[in-house]
């Protein structure tokens, strides 16, 4: 079974593609509540809840009805599911929880609802992308503050380039989010991973004498701000103690 990945926005953020984590693989066994929620058929969802159907059952990729309520940002349905016993921290096969969908949507109301129901604010995708990183990328400072206030790790990094929430917020020029993150004393000296890029320095045919390995990455938050021209975030970082001589 090959999953087909979908995202609501299909956006690219500063070269970092939003992970397609709600996988629409058809389950070998129908899961009526999750299937109805995926289709935003809320009347059917309400009927199934009233009939005590299994609301925790996941589809082929592990997505539950609560994931889809979060995807569609329907807090009324999410409340019904939670009251009926839905798991606020259920993860699909890629590690996405309902709270991830709330962060992806930048939904303060859904975030607050799920956190109040016990959702794990430290949850991360298999890639290491935390819910806080997702919220920092999408830019709702209220969501970011709610996650931090509930115990999210401000310095957690993803596995690919070891970038953190502060770096992602700066990459999208979300100065308000940067300010919210700085309230929790992130490591301003943290650096992304260094990787090597092979560059040909001449238009001539391939010649190993004109091939160089250039290091890329190794950026602090302030260097990220400089690269994207985010003056507002740079000022905030310097005021918080970032080294203006970063290289």
Which features would summarize this protein structure in a list?
9% strand; 247 residues; two-stranded antiparallel ribbon; mainly alpha; globular; Serine Threonine Protein Phosphatase 5, Tetratricopeptide repeat; single chain; disordered N terminus
Descriptive notes:
The chain is mainly alpha-helical. It has a single domain (5-190), classed as Ankyrin repeat-containing domain (Serine Threonine Protein Phosphatase 5, Tetratricopeptide repeat, Alpha Horseshoe). Helices cover 40% and strands 9% of the residues. A two-stranded antiparallel ribbon has the order 1-4. It has a two-stranded antiparallel sheet with strand order 2-3. A two-stranded antiparallel sheet has the order 5-6. β2 and β3 (16-17) form a beta hairpin. α9 (165-171) runs antiparallel to α10 (175-182) and α11 (221-228) packs antiparallel against α12. The radius of gyration is 21 Å and the shape is globular.
Q: What CATH first level would be assigned?
A: Mainly Alpha
Low-confidence stretches: 1-19
Overall pLDDT level: 89
Number of domains: 1
Order of helices and strands: EEEEHHHHHHHHHHEEHH
Spatial strand order of the main sheet: 1-4
């Amino acid at each position: 079974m090959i999953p087909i990945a979908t995202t609501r926005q299909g956006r690219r953020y500063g070269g970092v593609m939003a992970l397609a984590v709600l996988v629409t693989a058809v389950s070998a066994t129908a899961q009526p509540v999750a299937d109805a929620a995926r289709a935003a058929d809320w009347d059917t969802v309400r009927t199934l809840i009233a009939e005590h159907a299994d609301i925790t059952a996941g589809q082929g990729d592990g997505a539950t009805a609560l994931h889809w309520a979060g995807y569609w940002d329907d807090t009324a349905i999410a409340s019904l599911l939670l009251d009926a016993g839905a798991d606020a921290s259920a993860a699909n096969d890629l590690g996405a929880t309902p709270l991830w969908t709330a962060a992806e949507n930048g939904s303060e109301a859904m975030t607050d609802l799920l956190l109040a129901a016990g959702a794990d604010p430290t949850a991360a995708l298999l890639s290491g992308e935390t819910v806080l990183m997702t919220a920092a990328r999408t830019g709702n400072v209220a969501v970011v503050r709610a996650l931090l206030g509930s115990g999210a790790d401000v310095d957690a990094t993803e596995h690919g380039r070891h970038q953190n929430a502060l770096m992602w917020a700066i990459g999208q020029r979300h100065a308000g989010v940067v300010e919210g993150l700085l309230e929790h004393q992130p490591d301003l000296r943290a650096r992304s991973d260094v990787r090597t890029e092979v560059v040909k320095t001449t238009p001539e045919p391939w010649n190993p004498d004109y091939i160089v390995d250039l290091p890329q990455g190794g950026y602090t938050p302030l260097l990220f701000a400089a690269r994207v021209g985010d003056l507002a975030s740079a000022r905030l970082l310097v005021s918080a103690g970032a080294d203006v001589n970063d290289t």
